[in-house]
Amino acid sequence: MAVAANLNKLLDKAYEESPLDKLPDAPVAALAGVSKADAEALEKAFGVKTIGDLGRNQAIRAAVAIVGLVDLAD
Predict the structure, then answer these.
(1) How far apart are CA 51 and CA 12, in angstroms?
(2) How many other CB atoms are there within 10 angstroms of residue 59's CB atom?
(3) What is the pLDDT of residue 74?
(4) Residue 51's CB: how many other CB atoms inside 10 A?
(5) On the CB side of 63, how many CA atoms lie within 13 Å of its CA?
(6) Residue of 41, 48, 16, 46 whose CA lies nearest to 30
């Protein structure tokens, strides 16, 4: 099943045309607003190198789940 999405606002300009299935392998700095220094800090602190690493990180997932539950309760 093909998925189409406009992710331009979420990505650095250099990655706007990347196929969706390739984005998990892109560096974290491919995300809009994430600088090279931010990416280096994430790698040092959590071992996160790619968008996939970030999205699959247990601490990140826990934080997203907690915030989602709190937001639902509001």
Answers:
(1) 12
(2) 10
(3) 81
(4) 22
(5) 7
(6) 16
| Structural domain boundaries in the chain | 35-74
Question: What would the pLDDT profile of 7-62 be if each residue is shown by its tens digit?
Answer: 999 999 999 999 999 999 999 999 999 999 999 999 999 999 999 999 999 999 99
- What whole-number distance in Å separates Cα of residue 74 and Cα of residue 66? 13
CA dihedral 9, 46, 38, 67 (to 10 degrees): 50
State the burial class of residue 17 (Cβ atoms within 10 Å of its Cβ: 0-12, 13-18, 19+).
exposed
CA distance 69 to 7: 25
d(CA 15, CA 30): 6
Q: How far is CA 56 from CA 1, 14, 45, 52, in A?
A: 23, 23, 15, 6
